[in-house]
Specification:
The chain is mainly α and 161 residues long. It contains 8 helices and no strands. It is elongated.
């Protein structure tokens, strides 16, 4: 047992891990030799992480060409801001996240501001929502307008106010 602990200590001292982690592992292995070594081997082997990483690489390789980068967008971005263009190129290479042009994004500092805008857009788009067997768009919009803490009626129920 002492020889086994000594071999593990020498192995840890010569390993290329962080010195703080090295000291921690040395203490654990000296106090609980068998359990410490098993725990060290388990954490360093990283079985689940390796399998997940391998699967993610497979999925990314299989889907990399599915979302093409629109022509000319990166060139225009390069002219506007080289730093942002470099970041966009990195994102395209590493995760297949293309950059699109001629889009509009609104930043909302608070969720309440976002809901106000969502309500106004719901009211504008009301006649575009299909009226199949779903509850009416007016009932859905009314639910969004209900004050906090009020009892929410079922979606199909008529609201009296």
């Amino acid at each position: 047992m002492a020889l086994f602990t000594f071999v593990m200590v020498v192995y840890l001292l010569n390993s290329q891990i962080n010195p703080t982690a090295k000291i921690t592992w040395l203490i654990v292995i000296m106090l609980l030799p068998v359990f410490g070594v098993l725990l060290y081997l388990y954490t360093q082997s990283d079985f689940g992480h390796r399998a997940l990483k391998h699967r993610c690489h497979q999925v990314m390789a299989g889907t990399k060409g599915q979302i093409p980068q629109p022509e000319g967008v990166l060139g225009r971005l390069e002219q506007e801001n080289r730093g942002v263009a470099a970041l966009a190129q990195y994102m395209q290479r590493s995760g297949c996240h293309p950059v699109y042009g001629d889009t509009c994004v609104t930043y909302f500092p608070l969720g309440e501001c976002m809901f106000e805008e969502m309500l106004s857009q719901l009211e504008e788009a009301e006649h575009f929502i299909p009226a199949s067997n779903e509850p009416s768009s007016r009932a859905c919009a009314d639910i969004w307008r209900m004050p906090r803490g009020s009892n929410t009626p079922p979606l199909g129920a008529e609201r009296t106010s």
